[in-house]
Amino acid sequence: MVSLDQNVSGSESAEFSIKGTIASTNVNEIQDDYRWMEPYLVQLSPFERQVLDLRFSNDQSHSLVDISRLTGKTRHHIQAAEGRALSKLRRDLLPVLEPC
Questions:
Q1: Do residues 47 and 55 lie in contact, with contact meaning Cβ atoms separated by under 8 Å?
Q2: Secondary structure (3-state) at 17
């Protein structure tokens, strides 16, 4: 029988316990804070924001077909709105994320 507190030799003579290698289920999940993007998101049309929210929401992301059903627009219209919105964000955020 092996104890979880038993020390195990590492590759460089360092010792650690088996218990220390088991991931904790009590670790808080890291939440990304995207509030800094708000000034850029308000530049999008309400429909473009809705599409991005439905498409990339952390709660439940939807497929183009799902969004088409929810909005009553064609899948092609949804895809075009998503592309326009992402292009606008890419254009505006590139200088912020990768300054010269």
A1: no
A2: strand
